[in-house]
Amino acid sequence: MAFGRLERSRTDVPISDINVTPLVDVMLVLLVIFILTAPLLTSAIRLELPKADGVQAGEAPLAVTLVVNAQGQVFLNDKLMPLPALANQLKAIAAQRPDTEVQLRADQAVPYGRVVEVMGVAQKAGLSRIGFVADPPRAASGS
Predict the structure, then answer these.
(1) 122 neighbors 91 (Cβ within 8 angstroms)
(2) Among the four 45, 61, 68, 74, which has the fewest Cβ within 10 Å?
(3) Residue 67, beta-bridge partner list
């Protein structure tokens, strides 16, 4: 080694291997994007429906409201009804439109047996589409 001179090393040889790390990074980002957007694409189905003169929109299904209050009294469309009269009214409704929906609203204090009894009357009358109506829970106030 001489003073003032730096030793020269051989020149670096170029690397001929492909660096795969950036490729893997890009592929993982694309995979994450695909995973996040795939559910959005399947729920939005776009159709071009054919046009026809004879097609009419169906009528909205008829619905009756049955209410059972805390005392166990039954109301049909806000009119107090004893069970025998309720059965006759529901049979008349089912004879006119058998696809009528029954919206059953029962107080939470009503015994389960009373609710099942009212449901049985509706089913015997020929109305099998029964929906239970409930209030959504209140959101807790955070502030």
Answers:
(1) no
(2) 45
(3) 75, 105
Residue with tokens 């026809």, as numbered in its chain? 52
The per-residue pLDDT for 2 is: 57
Question: What is the DSSP-derived secondary structure letter of residue 10?
Answer: P
pLDDT at 25: 95
Cα–Cα dist 6/100, whole Å: 98
Residue 23 lies in a domain: no
Measured CA to CA, the distance from residue 110 to residue 71 in angstroms comes to: 7
Number of domains present in the structure of the chain: 1
Give a yes or no: residue 24 inside a domain: no
Measured between alpha carbons, how far is 127 from 66 in angstroms, rounded to an integer? Answer: 12
> Which strand ranges, in their side-by-side order, compose the sheet holding 79-81?
79-81, 74-76, 63-68, 101-106, 129-132
Alpha helices in the chain (DSSP H): 21-43, 83-96, 112-124
Q: What is the distance between the alpha carbons of residues 84 and 103, in angstroms, rounded to a whole number? A: 19
Which amino acid type is present at position 109? A
Average predicted confidence (pLDDT) for the chain: 79
Contact between residue 87 and residue 119 where contact means Cβ atoms under 8 Å apart: no
Question: The pTM is what?
Answer: 0.53
- C-alpha to C-alpha distance for 126 and 102, rounded to whole angstroms: 11
